[in-house]
Amino acid sequence: MAPLLIAIFRWLWLAQLVSNVGSWMQSVGAQWMLVGSPHAALLTSLVSAVSLLPVFLLSLPAGVLADSLDRRWLLVASNGFMGLAAGLLAVLTWTGQAGPVVILILTFALGCGAAVGTPAWQAIQPDLVPRYLIPSAAAISSANVNIARAVGPALAGALIAWAGPGLLFAINAASFLSVIAVLAAWRAAPKSRGSVGMGPAIASGLRYVRNAPGVRRIALRAALFVIPGSALWALLAVIAHGPMRQQSGGYGLMLAALGLGAVIGALVLPALRGRYATNTLLVGGSVIYSAGMTAVALLRSLPLVLALLLATGIGWVIVLSVLNAALMLTLPAWVRARSLAAYSIVFMGGQGIGAMIWGVVATPFGAVTTLSVASALVGIGSLTSVLWPLYKSTGTLDRQVVSMPEAVPDDAVPPRAGPVLIQIAYQVLPGDSGAFERAARALATSRRRTGAITWDLWQDVVNQSRYVEQYTLSDWAEHLAQREERITGYDRELERQVLSFAQPNPAVGHLVRPEHMPRIDRGIAVADTQNGGTAK
User: What is the dihedral of CA 256, 347, 16, 205, to 10 degrees?
Assistant: First the structure.
């Protein structure tokens, strides 16, 4: 609970809790309005799907904005937009105009607001607490969502019976004001961020993820869990209303049990981290969640299902918190929001695609059969940890940016001159060629991760101890960004390992195409002509 002792983290956490309670009330209200409709399994699944699918369209641009703009005001704008969408849905519900199409459209709009705000929200978390508290902060943030999942649905179930779903949508609209108020009052020091264009910024973010094995492995583990795991969230309303014969209150209690279990999981997770390895926690959490899905599909006793859903929530939050903490500790600040946006495409987009798939499958085969199959896939996915575990170094590497100013004068090359070819000639020490080549291959991943488009290593056919490293970047501004803003302590260590096998001070060359360079000889010729000389 140490992160909650930090004032700004505590206030933002509380504001987000209020907003999350409203969001869960909104979700219950929207799904319950559709649960009695024809094709209820498909429609209720689409509520989950359309709220999550906007991440495919907006997460990467939103990540660029979060890496470029003041994240506070980006969050204010996104929360304000979501408040307006929820308020409109409340008005249309009260006036009897909120049919399935309207509900899905406005749910999609809310999903768009969340997709824009999520990378910024995730990216500010490491700025709020010291690095050693990031795992605790990730668990507490997961607990936030799950406390809301415990409280929101239970309140929603009671309020639907008393006042109808329109009140739930109005409460959700008002809940966004809490986040806006805290963000507007936060006096964070403005941070200078890059002004790279949208296209190049997205490309650099994707390039980073593509060349970060640890990030890719985290994303793989998330996909194998959430795509089949999303079936529970997509079909729970149908199971509650159909086979279990529950009203809105019973459905709210089932969601509340999941949320309460997740809160318990967040509380016990620090102790579990001290006893079990990361991959063991991922497997254990997945197996628990899979067993809970099976129980919901097959059992009909509400008290027994509620008890098992507590355990299911524990499994859910263990997997999510472990993956989120690992990702936060892995990403450097310069590309954090964009990489989190790419992860959101996998995690939230995977839930959206999964919900849509399971809704379609449940239409002919039934919710019970579909949920049973999905639970088996979650279990099978957990077994793949034997083949594709998280790397042992995940979350332990030095991601502090180390500025390495470029030796070439600032005004020597136009910023958009490019592409830029960097050549580094090494004279390798006798007997170290093999070790040098292995270290250079590791450095190649770092070069690409921080901006290089191509990379290669050449060996002199005559002097076989001489090697030339070559890599290209899109332009000179990208090269400067790589050297001054993107090299982390881990990247610098990879460079040191390469240099340890070669003579000091290797020769470095910077090349661009001639047409992009100022022509000094032409400048001299013009000056001579103006002074009465002969231009040559």
Answer: 180
